[in-house]
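Notes continue from the previous slide.

Worked example: a multi-chain complex. Inputs as given:
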Amino acid sequence: MIYNLSDVTLAHSSSKGSVPVVRDLNLLIPERDFLAIVGPSGSGKTTLLNAMAGFLKPVSGTVLYRDTDLASLDPAEAAAYRNREIGLVHQFFNLIDDMTATENVMMPLLIRGNTLREARRAAAEILDQLGLGKLARRRPPRLSGGEQQRVAIGRALAGRPSVILADEPTGNLDRATTRDFMSLLGELHRAEPLTIVLVTHDQEVAAAATHRLDLGEVTACQRTA
Amino acid sequence: MKDRGRRPSHVTCALARGWYSSWRTYVCQPLRALRNAAIAITVIAGIIYFAAMMPAFNWHYTAAGQRAGFGWTVELPWPSDESAKTVEHLRSSLARPTLVWDGGPAILSASSGRARKDVPVRFMEPADRRALALTYHPGLIVKSVATARGLILDTITADRVGARLGDTVKLTWDGVPADGSTTRAYRVSALVLPTEQTFGALVLSPEVVTRQGVAVFLPKGLSAVQAAALTRQSSAISKSDAERTDLERLNNIIARNTRYVLTWVSLCLYVGFLYRDNADRMRAGRKRYAVMLSLGLAPKALSRITLAEQLVWGLATAGPAVLLGTWALTSSTGMYLPTDTIFAMLGYALVLNAIVGTALAARFRSTIRRLPIARLLAEG
């Protein structure tokens, strides 16, 4: 198993204090799984994803990534985990606007310590694979939403992570672009040894996953055909 | 999985990206970059201009200065009756408010034979000084009866050229130094108008105030009308001087303390502006910092990058600001600033920028761990 969540209770801070949103969750995610986490607003989807990304420590229980408790990592280890093991994709893309598409994709590699040449070459390859070769020198404000999200995928994949954590990646995309994006995600999942955990409220998006977790009525993991 | 990974062998590369990112942030968004840079440079230049100009401002004499009193001593070689008249005239003239001033340790008194009469004199010394070289016509000799020539009168009435309170004056007579030695500089310490019956006096003291002085007595022989006119004009000039003059004895202390105070005020303004400007930029960059942390940038590395950003920004604004401020100062006042002074100001600005930038980066370092990364990433 790549992720093992045991009796995890998660809470998020509000003006009224800490509010539990996930209680006593047990979840096993196998390697190379494609899991969609669905549920109504406020059910804790994003909170769960943040816990798996190491941004949030559980109130109780453990979140294990390959038998390592994420809550036990110090800041440097947590940073290394996020740089090497996971790739994040967000609803609002979160690209750095003053950097080109290539430079955005290069960032995780530079943080890791790759040379400029290595990072630039790897970024160019990724962008070519994603069909963005001609847009490599454009900055995000000059890219469409779909293109920006592809760049974000490229940045998430740059470090050859084991896991892609995507929080509402199609939230800002139109229907056609959403289909293209999910098609791309499916291809990547088939081609690469990737585990994908995707949070969405879109049932059509969730249908593209092989597994589905509904936090609105959490009892067990359901397999979708 | 507790693997910190290969220690980045290109930390400088990450730093360079930080600088590069900062540069791109401000250069590749030209309008915002220009606006912010213009504001920063203008404010900093204005503070430098203000601080540099302040010491040149004049201050009114203080009550403490008024209470202090001095007297001048001068030998009067004339017959006693003329001496007495001159002394009385000096006394009455110098007692006027427009001519009051607390000065150095010199004394003005009159002696006739063994009789000695002290005249309390208070002088005013303007803060601005102009160096003049005056050549007096032959016959107008210190400590002697002056002939009736109009030159010295001109120096009293001239408001454009001529000896005024505080002026630095070099006396020569037809090119010959007054005291027979090398040309010596004096300061005009007092002006007393002559009247038809009495001599006037142009009291000079050396640059370094001592008890030694020179009194140049002015020719007498004005008509009452002329004396009245000259009195009015000289009073106007003297009053103007009085309003613009400082106390010599307290001036150095006041000016020095004032410069210190104003330097501290300008320093606080400068630092405050830098802090506010940089803090605003860091606040605006929180989203970017959150993204970089989510990509696996270690908090310590982010601290280094923000420090680099602060220092680069400080360098980029300090130089133009100092140059702009000094240009404004020299072009508006005609003041000459030596090159080493400009370099000193530049160094001062750079050091301040570095201190403020480092302090901000250190403060940011303590808050990195509390940065709401998840919330910032979820924001549009």
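Summary box: Confidence is low (pLDDT under 50) at residues 219-225 of chain A. DSSP finds seven helices and ten strands in chain A.
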